[in-house]
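PROTEIN DESIGN WORKSHEET
SECTION A - STRUCTURE
LENGTH: 305
TOKENS:
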């Protein structure tokens, strides 16, 4: 991440482009930051920019608790005593960042899952925000799905910072399968983006746009493609590990630890979603949990009647 080069959107709202796009709202001599970036280095660059502009950091407003969105919280809070606002159910992860690796791994995370990519430094959430809550001209719009209670943040200028409620088309193409926690909620959040008025729509990973239709369509198409691929894989009984391996081959990428954790968690979320929709079931055989579509012959368990 090089030097921060602000891009003016409208009014007092600016975009700080980077690996994770940040938002900057200026109110007289105060600055409000939407997300904080990957790490301490991102925080240093933010403070350098604010000092050059004669601005004092009032608060960091986090869309959610993933490490690339809260990575500079602790540094910024330590340097400035700024406030941190975040969705209420994301706050425990911000204050106890090891929870993210635990969620992804399904148990106590081992060393590599405690790197800064997964586990930021702990920071104190000074104001937990309820879904739809407004304060100081900012509105926390519920856009869950990518993570537990992720929220978009709409500024008083009408700019909607989407967090990871939608990813830019080029980002989807690069990463093949995005990390998703709740598939149904993600789909519903895409619909909510379309029905939410804003002057700009700013994904954390992707280009800002005036009209979100293309952005939403790309994300919906990706979810549909992943779902279709999983249903195809489960046309015969397979274990989670076999399904994951086949999914990776189908989307053309090799596994490493990060992908195993992120794509593996996403696959489990799809299995939960498809089971809840009555499209797949599971059974235990020979010490393995096997998943299959409901059209497969033989006994099935765990499906909605």
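SECTION B - SEQUENCE
RESIDUE ASSIGNMENT:
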């Amino acid at each position: 991440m090089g030097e921060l080069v602000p891009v003016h959107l409208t009014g007092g709202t600016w975009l700080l482009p980077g690996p994770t796009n940040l938002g900057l709202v200026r109110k007289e001599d105060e600055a409000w930051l939407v997300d904080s970036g990957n790490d301490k280095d991102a925080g240093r660059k933010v403070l350098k920019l604010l000092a050059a502009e004669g601005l004092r950091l009032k608060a960091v407003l986090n869309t959610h608790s993933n490490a690339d969105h809260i990575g500079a919280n602790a540094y910024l809070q330590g340097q400035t005593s700024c406030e941190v606002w975040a969705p209420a159910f994301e706050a425990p992860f911000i204050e106890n960042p090891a929870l993210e690796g635990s969620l992804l791994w399904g148990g106590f995370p081992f060393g590599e899952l405690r790197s800064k990519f997964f586990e930021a430094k702990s920071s104190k959430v000074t104001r937990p925000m309820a879904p739809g809550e407004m304060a100081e001209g900012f509105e926390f719009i519920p856009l869950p799905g990518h993570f537990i209670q992720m929220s978009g943040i709409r500024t008083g200028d009408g700019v909607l910072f989407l967090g990871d409620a939608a990813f830019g088309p080029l980002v989807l193409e690069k990463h093949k399968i995005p990390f998703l926690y709740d598939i149904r909620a993600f789909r519903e959040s895409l619909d909510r983006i379309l029905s939410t008025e804003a002057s700009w729509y700013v994904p954390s990973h992707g280009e800002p746009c005036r009209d979100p239709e293309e952005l939403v369509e790309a994300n919906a198409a990706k979810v549909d493609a992943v779902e279709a691929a999983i249903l195809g894989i489960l046309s015969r009984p397979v274990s989670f590990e076999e399904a994951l391996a086949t999914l990776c081959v189908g989307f053309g990428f090799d596994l490493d630890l990060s992908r195993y954790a992120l794509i593996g968690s996403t696959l489990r979320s799809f299995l939960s979603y498809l089971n809840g929709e009555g499209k797949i079931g599971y059974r235990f055989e020979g010490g393995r949990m096997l998943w299959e579509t409901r059209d497969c012959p033989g006994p099935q368990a765990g499906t909605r009647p």
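SECTION C - NOTES
The chain has a mean pLDDT of 95.
The chain has ten helices and 15 strands.
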